[in-house]
Design a protein that fits this description.
The protein is 66% helix and 0% strand. By secondary structure, the protein is mainly alpha-helical. It folds into 2 domains: 1-93, no CATH class; 120-266, no CATH class. The chain is globular.
């Protein structure tokens, strides 16, 4: 039980860092220097007011200096981060620490991309570049050691990256960026590299369904019209998160449908 508490607390700390990334990266600010400050009064925030979740409630959701409200998004991000640390540990602890850390890395990165895209309609290259480096390093570990489960350097994953990126890039090119952004194409390619062709297709399919449902709900509630943009990267990121925890069961069910191509479905 104590181990789970430590893991959850670690997740809260990482979630606090995720808040910094989500706020600063779209503004072009550095994330490793400069103390946190109130976005309203710009006063520096003391360390004891930066304790994940706890400080938010001790401050009664208000800045200590200017008394302006603090967004509930900050503790929500931290709690979400702590939760995915626990869930990923539960699902991947048998595979080992490396698989768990890599899963957490992917989940946190996808969550950061999802919120940035939701708030700003951008998918920063800097974050996806960090993800690519992390994926490649994990792929090297897979080649050196056995027992890891993402098969980054497999034919399936390379084909997944090429097919998904090419399909989304073509849509972006033909629509001149009106249907989706180039960042969506890059994210789709990254999803294919991590999860393979069929895993990537399931994730994209799930994202399209989720986006369609969200769009219909917004239309029905008169909160959007047919020209309203939706953050596709957000739906892809959350669909990939769901796939990490549930997708293997789905993939096992559809494998018999593709038994004629065993070289792709490993």
């Amino acid at each position: 039980m104590l181990l789970f508490i430590y893991i959850f607390l670690l997740g809260l700390v990482v979630g606090s860092f995720a808040n910094v990334v989500i706020y600063r990266v779209p503004r072009g600010w550095g994330i490793f220097w400069g103390r946190s400050a109130c976005p309203n009064c710009r006063k520096k925030i003391s360390w004891h007011d930066l304790i994940p979740v706890v400080s938010f409630f001790l401050l009664k959701a208000q800045c200590r200096q200017c008394r302006q409200p603090i967004s509930w998004l900050y503790p929500a991000v931290e709690l979400y981060s702590g939760t995915i640390f626990l869930l990923s540990f539960y699902f991947t602890n048998r595979a080992g620490v490396v698989d768990w850390l890599f899963t957490v890395f992917i989940l946190e990165s996808l969550f950061i991309l999802a919120l940035i895209d939701l708030k700003n309609f951008i998918l920063p290259d800097s974050i996806m570049i960090v993800m690519i480096f992390g994926v490649l390093w994990y792929g090297i570990f897979e080649q050196v050691f056995s027992g890891y489960g993402f098969n980054i350097f497999s034919f399936n994953n390379f084909i997944g990256a090429a097919v998904l990126f090419s399909a989304f890039f073509l849509l972006w090119f033909l629509s001149r960026g009106t249907w989706l952004g180039l960042g969506d194409a890059k994210l789709a390619g990254l999803i294919g590299l991590i999860f393979g062709l069929w895993g990537g297709l399931i994730i994209i399919y799930g994202a399209i369904i989720a986006g369609t449902v969200a769009g219909l709900v917004l239309l029905a509630s008169y909160r959007a019209n047919l020209k309203t943009k939706l953050p596709l990267g957000t739906f892809i990121s959350f669909s990939a998160t769901a796939y990490i925890f549930l997708g293997q069961g789905i993939l096992e069910k559809i494998k018999p449908l593709f038994f004629s191509v065993p070289f792709i479905l490993k």
